Amino acid sequence: GSKIICNFLCLYCFSLSLQQVTCEESAKNYSSIPTSLSKNVTKLYLSNNNITLNDTDKKVLQLFINLTELYLNENAITVLHNNTFCNLSELTILDISSNYISTIEQAAFKGLNQLSILYLNHNKISQLDSDTITSLKKLMILSLQDNLLKYFDVKASFKLITLNGNPWNCSCGLLSLQKWLNASNVTMEHENDTLCAYPDVWNKSSIKTAPIQKADCDSRRGSIAITTPSTSAILTSSLNSSNNNIRSSPPLGKTWVFLLGVLVFVLSTSLLIFIAIKFPLWYVYLISYNHRRLKEYEPEMFDKEFTTDLSTFPSISNTNEQDSIAVFEQTHTFVLDEDGFIEDKYIDDPGLTEEV
C-alpha cells in the first residue's frame, strides 16, 4: 500500500513539473509586454526592461490566467493602478522591486487571492494604505526595503517583513506599527538596521524598541478630541453667518446695473480729463478773447448795404417816413474816429484805444 502511495505522489509531482511553463524575456529592452507570448506560461520573467504597466500592459496581463510567478523587477513602473493584476488569481509570487513606484492605488492588488510573496523593495513609496496589503489574505512575505516610508499601519499576519532603509519617524504615528511588530509573530528582517530617522535623539534606535510614549500620544489625542467640537461649532457659526449675509444682500441684477453705471461714469470722466490734458487747444479758443480790426468799407458800399438793410425791415402801419428814419438812426449809430476806425465800446482803457 505504501508503494502505491509513493508512486502516486511521484506521478503527481511529475505531472506538476510538466505543467510548468517558463518564459524568459529579461533584458530585451521591451517598452511593453509582448502580445506574442504563449498564454500558457506559468513563470514569466520580464526583468530589466522598460515596461511601465500602462493600460495596454494591463490588458495583456489579463490573458496570462495560468501565471504563478511574475517578475517585473528593474523596469520603469511609476504607478500601480487599480485592478492591474485582477485576472491573475493563481499568482503566488510578484516581484516589482527596483522600479520607480511612488503611488500604489488601493485596489492595485485586487484579485491576487493566492499571492504569498510580494517584493516592493527599492522603490519610491512614501505612503501605503494598510487596506491595500490587508486584502492579500495569504500574503506571508512582504519586502518594503529602501523606500520613503515614514509611517506604516498594517494589521495582517505575515511571517516575514523587511522594513530597513526607510526614513521612519518614531513618533505617535508609528506607535501602531511598533505594537504590531511586538505583539505578532512576524519576523522583521534586518531588525538592527531598521532605525528611526526622526527625532534625532532616537536615530540609532530600532523602530521596534524606540521609546515612543503611549501616554503622550493618548494625551495628544484627548486634546484633539476636546478641541474638535469647538472647531466644528466655529465652522458652523461662520457658515450660518455667511448664509445670512447672502440672504440679506441685494439682488444680483440691481447690483450689476448699479456697478455698470458707476463704471460708465468713471470711464467717461477719466476720458474727459485725459482729453483736457493731452489736447489743450480745444478750450483755449473758448476762453481767450481776441480783438480783431474791423474792415473799413468804402462810402458807396456802405450806402448800398444801408439801402439793402433798410429794405429788409417790415412796413409799420400808421407811421410816416420820418418815424422810420428816426427808428433806424437810433438803432444804427456808428461813431467814426479821426483815423477812420470804428470805436470799440468794449475797450475802456484810453491807452488801449490810442494804440488801436
TrEMBL record:
Species per Swiss-Prot/TrEMBL record: Gopherus agassizii (Agassiz's desert tortoise)
Database matches in InterPro entries: Cys-rich_flank_reg_C, Leu-rich_rpt, Leu-rich_rpt_typical-subtyp, LRR_dom_sf
Domain called LRRCT: residue spans: 166-218
Gene Ontology MF terms in the entry: signaling receptor activity
Name of this protein: LRRCT domain-containing protein
Keywords, comma-separated and alphabetical: Leucine-rich repeat, Membrane, Repeat, Signal, Transmembrane, Transmembrane helix
The keyword Cell cycle belongs to this UniProt entry's keyword annotation: no
Transmembrane portions of the chain: 256-285
Any one biological process term the GO annotation gives: positive regulation of non-canonical NF-kappaB signal transduction
Signal peptide: 1-23
Annotated GO CC locations: plasma membrane
Keyword match Transferase: no
Pfam families documented for this protein: LRR19-TM (PF15176), LRR_8 (PF13855)
